[in-house]
Amino acid sequence: MTPDPGTPGQTAPGQPAQAAPALDVAGLCVDVDTPAGRIRLLDDVSLTVRPGERLAVVGESGSGKSVMARSILRLGDTYRTTGSIKVAGTEVTRLSERQMSRLRGSTVAMVFQDPLGALNPLQTIGEQVAEPLRVRGTGRQEAERAAAAILEELGVARAAERMKAYPHEFSGGMRQRVVLAMALIAEPQLLIADEPTTALDVRVQEQVIDLLHEVSTERNLAVILITHDLGIVAGFADRVAVMYAGRKIQDDDAGRLFREPAHPYARGLIEAVPRIDHRIEHLVGIPGVPPHPGARPSGCAYHPRCPFRMDICEVEVPAERPLPSGGTVACHLFALEGNAS
Amino acid sequence: MWIVRLVSRRVALGVITLIALAAAVFFISTLVPGDPARVAAGENATADQIAAARENLGLDKPVIIQFFLYLGRLLHGDLGMSISTHSPVTEGLFDALPTTFELVLMSIILMLVVALPAATIAALRRGGAGDQALRTSAVFTAGIPTFWLALLVQFFIGGKLQILPLSGAVSRQYSVDRVTGFMLIDATISGGAEAGWDAFLHLLMPSAVLAVLFGAQLFRALRTEIIRVLAREHIAVARSKGVPPLTLVMHHVLPNSIGPAITILGVQFGMMVGSAVLVESIFALPGLGSYLTNAVGSADVNALLGAVLVTGLVVVTASLVVDLLQAVRDPRVRAAQNGGGR
């Protein structure tokens, strides 16, 4: 069970492909050029996702969550990316566009926010679900059989028949199942779900999250769930990364993060979630608004809103430091604690 | 079934439109100065002969009665006799229409062949040098008056450079029997591929002139729509599924982008028949344009009415075809036709 720690400098034999993380992002920076100048959307983000692991990426809008998702699949045509993105061991920043389109769908796939907008209104459900296989040269009949099978597996009743229907004939929850089927049919190792439940009503949200959890377990599929809704994170994720103003500020085991959030921002986020077992007088929020990507504060971008602000926070960007719990945090408070202890 | 509903609804609407059009043109034409009876009787006719012609043509009856008599004949497909040529108007139109259709259809093909790829490239490379050049030339060409462009290319390409024939439908050396009325087809039947090619070359310049003006509009509409569609989420989704660029354009971008272009082409079809009047007279093509010009010139009311009604019929038919194409393209349009809401 435990890997032998005594073989330095060499990968353990017999499991080279398995050992590669589903996603390994190191020092990722993303800039865009706007008429107002170059804006940094993502700043020095590093992140690792193990095969089969479920990671939630949380943060307010504008924190860079979706930018990260799109840059992993290289869907942002205006992005200027530096740093390294390895998907299942393959460095995607160096791939040609053709190699990249072969990787998309089969190694890493994505589920988007609005299930209606995510479907081509002019093609049948069947055509769209089968497409990732068709563009890889699978025959029509075989691809359609696979599409029917995966739709059925994801809970679309009478799938073979309903494949002839068009997206507008499906309900929101069913559409999201279709979108998920499209993402999974070519059997990727990593699925990025960008706010997959935001456009759905609460009951359907739950079903979709449960479904994601189920397929992740069954297929040993690594899932990155991007959301601003901490309520759906708790039951789903193994690990949570918190983003703020283009940086990852905390990365920790889900249970520990909810019990004892280290970063003041993470603390604020968790306290802001209304809880059914607590009587509250009024909703708690974090004072202030997240900064615009073009006008981020100096030092730690959170310092204007932080109740524990120190002088150093305005000047120096805090580095990521390991937490005693095993996670990491980027906050000067913990540098002090580390020095003190 | 959506197609039955759609066609029956549009045909009923089309008939009403055409009757209204006939009424409008008929009553306006009675106000135009000039005496059709005098034209019909000939230049040196006596007063008695003119009066006889007037009675003969039914012009002595009240205008409203004249109109209903005209409508009654119209129901039997009788558009009356041309006063100037003394032959049935239907016959004249039947001779002229294929030439105009050939010209307009050829222009539309040219427009699509050029505008579709150009708009796609411009939209994909939005803001780039190619996009700028294409947009500038689209603005430029849309501002050129048709007749001026027609004379200009005729002078340079036909006259100075002699790349293409100056005018006419086919070279004199080929004697072409009328079979379908479409010169490209008839010439090929009568004189083989060589004559067909000759007819094609004759058609190229006039149809290109017509295409330049209308194609610019089509290009701009297509480019705008493609840019809009490219920003839609299902395009990003298709890319995330691993759809390669060419398949993406052919299966996802273009089918979703051509809706407005189809509508524009439908409207333009009628306008192009109108613009063909000028182009045909400059390039000496015996089409509807020449027929209409003749009719107006000789106060030939029946010919004029017939030509306008046929143009109206073309416009009505074009809009029906547009609706059919949209329904074939978009399942949501079909659903709406079936009364399925949404």
From TrEMBL, chain A:
Gene3D superfamilies the UniProt entry points to: P-loop containing nucleotide triphosphate hydrolases (3.40.50.300)
Domain ABC transporter as annotated: residue spans: 23-270
Stretch forming the signal peptide: none
Listed PROSITE patterns: ABC_TRANSPORTER_1, ABC_TRANSPORTER_2
Keywords: ATP-binding, Cell membrane, Membrane, Nucleotide-binding, Transport
Domain of life: Bacteria
Membrane topology: Peripheral membrane protein
Entry-linked SMART domains: AAA
Location of the protein in the cell: Cell membrane
SUPFAM superfamilies: P-loop containing nucleoside triphosphate hydrolases (SSF52540)
CDD domains the UniProt entry points to: ABC_NikE_OppD_transporters
InterPro entries membership: AAA+_ATPase (IPR003593), ABC_Ni/Peptide_Import (IPR050388), ABC_transporter-like_ATP-bd (IPR003439), ABC_transporter-like_CS (IPR017871), Oligopep_ABC_C (IPR013563), P-loop_NTPase (IPR027417)
PANTHER family listed in its UniProt record: DIPEPTIDE TRANSPORT ATP-BINDING PROTEIN DPPD, OLIGOPEPTIDE TRANSPORT ATP-BINDING PROTEIN APPD
Family: Belongs to the ABC transporter superfamily.
Protein name, entry field: ABC transporter ATP-binding protein
Organism (species): Arthrobacter horti
Organism ancestry: Bacteria, Bacillati, Actinomycetota, Actinomycetes, Micrococcales
TrEMBL record, chain B:
PROSITE patterns: ABC_TM1
Alphabetically ordered keywords of this record: Cell membrane, Membrane, Transmembrane, Transmembrane helix, Transport
Entries under InterPro entries matching the protein: BPD_transp_1_N (IPR045621), MetI-like (IPR000515), MetI-like_sf (IPR035906)
Superkingdom per UniProt: Bacteria
Transmembrane as UniProt keyword: yes
Domain (ABC transmembrane type-1) ranges: 97-326
Bilayer topology: Multi-pass membrane protein
The keyword Cell membrane is annotated on this UniProt entry: yes
Originating organism: Arthrobacter horti
Signal sequence coordinates: none
Protein name (database record): ABC transporter permease
Ranges that cross the membrane: 12-32, 103-124, 136-157, 199-219, 258-283, 303-325
Similarity field: Belongs to the binding-protein-dependent transport system permease family.
